[in-house]
Amino acid sequence: MLDATASALRTVGTESEPAPRAAGGGEKLIETLLLLCAVLSIITTIGVLAVLLFETVSFFTKVSFSQFFADAKWTPLFANKHFGIWPLVSGTLLTSVIAISVALPLGLMAAIYLSEFAGPRTRAFVKPTLELLAGVPTIVYGYFALVFLTPILQAFMPQVEAFNALSPGLIMGIMIMPMISSLSEDALHAVPNELREGAYGLGASKLSTIFRVVVPAAKSGVVAAVTLAVSRAIGETMIVTIAGGAQPNFTFDPRGAVETMTAFIISVSKGDTPTGTIEYQTIFAVGSMLFLMTFTMNFITQRLLRSSRGKGL
Prior knowledge:
The chain folds into 2 domains: 27-61; 86-310, MetI-like (MetI-like fold), CATH 1.10.3720.10. The chain is 73% helix and 0% strand. The protein has 13 helices and no strands. The termini are far apart.
């Protein structure tokens, strides 16, 4: 009797479950297109890395590692050639540090305000308005830094040169601030309200809840936003080309002229340098160094995030 009942129930259950519908021709086409897009992106990445690696290896067959890493002068376009990369690295790091020093506190505070204090109408108006800063062409930012911000800085600091690292660094900070604020606000807004209510129930104030509960809970999103912003600052070209001075000085004084790696690449890529020459191959050597810097930064960030998750932070 029991066996017959179980058999009947299995039969009813089998009949009630709909059979999986076979994918139609349209779904298969969409799946194939999505696969092709993914494969195309992988092939493009491999192609870029292959070209970069090939030209870089060719460069180092003519220039030794000691000339590249142990020299403090960068004059590959002059008669007396020097290939020390550190002036370009120092200029890139200097402007990027200034930019992130401006963008991080302003962007994070703006994100906290929009997520925790602003009303729905204020948030709906302020956030898109703030994001408009990211849509301004970088060449406009460059000339703004040169003709507007630099004279103001010279009025307060006469030692600031006409071309300097401070002015483009500050403007780059304004440029990447919307990236930090927008992405961080999304991460903060996604924190469950239960965490806030639990903190309030334990007697925490609003500020304590924000900085000790909400921000740590959204740490992954905030760190990702900062990482993207730093990568954007390191890869910025037009602002530092126009307002930085294009002078490869090995210095960390923001009042003087500097040249970043991206500024050098664009200065050599104008078409005047013959293909295959050592001057032409410096573009790829500098590009490889830039790639290694951003890759290392992203790798360290990911490891730190995984470590913090493993510790339950």
